[in-house]
Amino acid sequence: MNFNKKNLEDAVSENIISLEQSEKLIEFLNKQPNATPKFDFTHVLYYIGGMIAIGAMTLFMNLGWESFGGIGILFISLFYGAVGLKLTNIFKSKGLAIPAGICGTFVIALTPLAVYGLQHALGVWPDESVYREYHRYIKWHWLYMELSTLAVGAIIAWKYKYPFLIMPIAVTLWYLTMDVAVMINGGDYSWELRKLVSMYTGLLMIALAFWVDIRSHNKADYSFWIYLFGVIAFWGGMSLQHSDSELSKFIYFSINIFMIFAGVLIVRRVFVVFGAIGCSGYIGHLASNIFKDSWLFPITLTLLGLFVIYLGVLWQKNESLITTKARSFLPVALRELLESKHA
Question: What per-residue confidence (pLDDT) applies to 39?
Fold first, then answer.
C-alpha cells in the first residue's frame, strides 16, 4: 500500500503517531534508494536516457553501421556490452536499482546486434537483409539472434534480478513465435497467420506472466512486462480478426468484459485499458451499424450505465464479505497473490 506525507499528517492528527515520529519516518524514507519505479523527475530521466541508448542500438540503428563489417560490429557490440555490465555493477553496488536494471537491459538489447555481426564475420548470413530490419520484418534466420537474446537475458535476469530486465525477454519471445510460425508454415507471411500467431502467443505469454506473478509477488514485479506484451499480442491479434457474425462480435465483447474484471482482480491495468477499448469498439459497432436508426438505443445505454454504477455502490458496501467468501474457494497460492495485490 502506498502512502504519502498527507497520510502521515492525518495519522498525526488522529494521534496514531506523534509529529516527531512522522518527521523521522519521512527523513528515513527520503534517504532510502528508490528501488521501485515511480513517476518523478529522477526516474523519468533514468528511463529517457535508457530508452535513448537502447533505441540507438535497436530500433534506430542506421545503415552506416554496415560499413564496419561483421568483425567491427561484433567487437563494438562486445565493447558496449562490457561497459553496460560495468555500469550495472557500479549502480548495483550503490543501491541504485533502477539505473542498474536499465544498464543490464541495454546489454540484453545488444545481443541481436552482436550475433548479427558474428554471423557476418563467419560468412553464414543467408541473404541481403540488414540488422535494422530485425525489428520490422519476420524472417526465419532471425532465430539465432532471438535464441541468443533469450539465453543472455535469462542469465542476466537470474544474476541481477531487476524487473526491467524482463522487458527485452518479453519482446523477444513475441518476435520468436512469429518467426517460428512462418518457418514452420514454409515461409508463408500471410496477414491471417500473423494475427492468429499473435493471439495465441499472447495467451501463452499471459499464462506465463500469471505463473511468474504467483511465484514472485512477494519479491518484485517480474511479470509486468510479460503481461504487457502478452495482452498487446493477444488483444491485437483478436481485435484484427474479421467476422460478419454478430455472435462472434458479441463473444469478442464478452472477452473484453472478462479482461476488465480480470484486470481489476489481479490489479493489472493493462487488461482494463485494452478491455475498455474493445468494449467501446463493440458498442460503437452497435451504435453505427445495428441500432443506427433507433432512438431507444442511447436511452438503453444510459440506463445500463446507471445500473453499472448502482452495482458499484452495492459492491462497495459488501466488498469485504464477498471477497473473503470468494477467496476461500481459491488455491492457497492464488489467494496469497490476490491478498498481496489488495493489501
Answer: 57
Instruction: Give the range of the structural domain holding residue 124, as residue numbers without chain letter.
Output: 33-165
Q: What is the mean pLDDT of the chain?
A: 82
Q: CA-CA distance, 112 to 151, in Å (whole number)?
A: 11
| DSSP letter (8 states) at residue 59 | T
Q: ∠76-47-4 over CA atoms, to 5°?
A: 155
Q: Which three cell numbers stand for residue 4?
A: 504519502
Question: How confident is the model at residue 321, as a pLDDT?
Answer: 77
294 and 224, same structural domain? yes
Q: pLDDT per residue over 197-255, tens digit each?
A: 889 989 999 999 999 988 887 777 888 899 999 999 999 989 988 888 889 999 999 99
Asked if the structure places residue 14 within a domain, the reply is no
Residues 6+ apart with CB under 8 A from 177: 197, 201, 204
φ, ψ for residue 135, nearest 5 deg: -90, 5
Alpha helical stretches, state H, the chain: 5-13, 19-31, 41-56, 69-93, 97-122, 143-160, 166-184, 191-216, 224-239, 246-266, 269-285, 296-327, 332-341
